[in-house]
């Protein structure tokens, strides 16, 4: 069997969903297939705005939510006319579920509420995709992934209970695949109490990799709006070139350092079972794209990754004493507690510096926890540039006319914090 993943860009409107159906008809006429789908276009951001408005008790909640509904009704109308009552009722069920949360108190835990509301995006998109596939004659079953992938209660960053989820997936999915293809939601999980969780932004790639691993897929394909993995984000590097093949190691390095093309957690479940990952273009489905597998690729080009919106936090001891392991331990415990990943770190004699994504809802409580023990300096609005397989020319090119605050060089990677 194989797993396809379609991201937001590939299902952003009715024409795109029709294109998805034609890719499935073309590339998987009979085979066993699980399709993992993200929310349409920018729906997750739109639902995030609904949650924020509700949380702040702003008057915009209704209007923001209405926009999300209208967008989905519009696409349903284009795909099914007004004929398919079942589709409209299924969409309505999801909208009513969200409405119930919005009728309740805003004083519930923000992350919990976020997941209950934002998860609607994937539920809605998969209803439309599954119904459309059935309409064009592809026998498809819609599956609620929350019944299969159980997570802990870390809302917004659910951690999968691997053994339980694997048992469920291995029990329920193969018999269905004998008859039908499956459409399910990326990015979502469910707790033991039947609440919805999400797996972290952009997490649908990871969901597809989890299914691939648990079902021992022959291969996994993610269909993107780019020709494959390039030597840099084409939105930022106009002459980026396609990389035909990548080893798992190269891929995990690129995504770990922030290449936004695949979620960093995607590689491990695939590598562990030696399942190849194909990154292909839904705009040019015939093209081969990039293959990620075991084989080592010689002659890798310089690959650049830009991480915008970074904040540098410098922790100074208050009495001019050295930064020692106990200090580092306190700092790292607080980082772990607030689930903050350090993108770069550097020791000094009386200071310790980290560069992290500037996510205020995580940074503020971190600083509260540590400000008694340290003097903390913050510098916002920075960018972290990572060049893998760097050359002096590549470094020069990507830092030209910019102030470099900090440089770290290893054998394969150079990282530069720039203004
Ligand atoms: P999805 O629709 O599956 O969620 P994403 O938008 O998350 O897809 O990922 C595709 C985007 O990743 C591209 O539009 C591109 O701008 C960006 N990107 C960043 N780095 C790279 C890279 N090295 N190669 C290709 N695309 C990249
Ligand atoms: N829809 C989710 C997001 O935008 C998950 C995903 O697209 O992978 O983050
Ligand atoms: Mg994505």
In helices, the fraction of residues equals: 25-40%
Radius of gyration, CA atoms, in whole angstroms: 23 Å
Q: Going by CATH, what is the homologous superfamily of the largest domain?
A: Acetylglutamate kinase-like
Q: Tell me the β content.
A: 15-25%
Average predicted confidence as pLDDT: 96
| Low-confidence residue ranges | none
- Helix and strand content put the structural class at alpha/beta
- The CATH architecture assignment of the largest domain turns out to be 3-Layer(aba) Sandwich
**Strand order, sheet with most strands:** 3-4-2-1-7-9-10-8
Largest beta-sheet characterization: 8 strands, mixed
What is the count of structural domains? Answer: 2
Give descriptors for this structure.
single chain, 419 residues, alpha/beta, Carbamate kinase, VC0802-like, six-stranded antiparallel sheet, 13 helices, 39% helix, globular, binds adenosine-5'-diphosphate, binds aspartic acid, binds magnesium ion
